[in-house]
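Hi there, hope your week has been kind to you so far. Thanks so much in advance, here it is.
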Amino acid sequence: MERIAIIGAGISGLTLASALASSAQVTVFEKARGVGGRMSTRYAPPYSFDHGTQFFTARDPSFQHHISPLIEKGLIAPWTGKVISLAAEQPTTDRLWFEPHYVAVPNMNSLCKSMAEGLQVLCNVEVAPLPQKDRDGWHLTNKNGALLGIFDWVVSTAPPAQTIALFEPHLASDHALRQVRLHGCYAIMIGFNKPWKKSWIGAKIQHSPLEWVAVNSTKPGRDKTVTSVVAHTTSTWAEEHINDDMEHAELLLRQEFERVTKIDTRDADYFSCHRWRYAVVDTTQQCEAFVDPALSLASSGDWCSVSRIEDAWLKALELAERIKEHC
């Protein structure tokens, strides 16, 4: 039975692991404290913030079929309510959601936690760049040089820049993965120790460094006795400020949030800022998932699509089938 190491415990990595587990010995390595990737949740009791992926859709019939039993179990639920367009000094207008928008319950990372059950997932483990492959396989080590195991295949679901760093010098100089770019994004998280009283659950922001504001506490299964708000920046603003001092970026975004929403954050009991360096794929430079059967290396991720959850799931399943062909 093939020994497969998967790097990254987000949707892509866990989908791959589930698809390969029946025919291979699979170990998933995740450098963060928990699973989820961009479906992570920040906990600051009594607040929780889905500070990455806010929701997902289900347009593909196979993905609809996949999530149907999860909806029945209550692990996934539609997020419904009023969504508006918002711009400073302009009247608000309603926005229409033409399809169901789903969230995991009680938090976005709950879906990944469920997917990880029964799999061998090791968190807080950062895999070092791959050495030369030995006769018996890839000798994976952590960043401190400790041996993590010997594997026949190594599959990365990390962002392109991190995958390139892991796979150097095993990627050709003109490999398509080297052309893929992911833009950054900042997320601010604000907690108010009182229920949300406004009529809207989310807002698309116009003419602002901010792009989206979500009232996280309005999602199914969340604590509605408090208000948890997540705001995301545009990728353009984030790229211009990607190396800013975090306190400076936080101050700018706090001021912008108040300007656009007219919500006074001095009443907030919690405020935090998170920088996602790799958030939104540049669709002009996309790359397909790849398999190198000669070296037994492969890679996939949401960078293969348009950063949508169901697309990452579909791409991961496709890659799993391609890997099985060579095992």
